[in-house]
From TrEMBL:
UniProt xrefs under SUPFAM superfamilies: Dimeric alpha+beta barrel (SSF54909)
Annotated InterPro entries: Dimeric_a/b-barrel, DUF1330
Pfam families: DUF1330
Identification of the protein by name: Uncharacterized conserved protein, DUF1330 family
The organism's place on the tree of life at top rank: Bacteria
Higher taxonomy: Bacteria, Pseudomonadati, Pseudomonadota, Alphaproteobacteria, Hyphomicrobiales
Sequence ranges assigned to domain DUF1330 in this UniProt record: 3-95
Amino acid sequence: MAKGYWIVRVDVQDAEAYKAYAAANGAAFARFGGRFLVRGGAFEAVTGTARARNVIVEFPSYETALACWNSDLYQSARALQKGGAEADIVVIEGYDGPQPQVSEPAPTPGAASE
């Protein structure tokens, strides 16, 4: 079964409200088996627009990721930061299929591309 993920991009506008939310959301994530894969950290927006903070939370399944989002426990945590942050959040099903295979040698570092 494919895992589920929350992909979150955030601009924090009220640091105190966001801290309260971050302190409370862990209970919901723990209850639904969520774990942080990305929580802030250095990044470079190589194309498109970005927000100041990025988070990826992994769940055992897509259904579990949605259940966490819809839970009273998470929505209570979320209410603590109302107006404290502007966010884009996607709940998405992971991919559990075949992966790319090497079919030719990798380019030599520093070689000009064609």
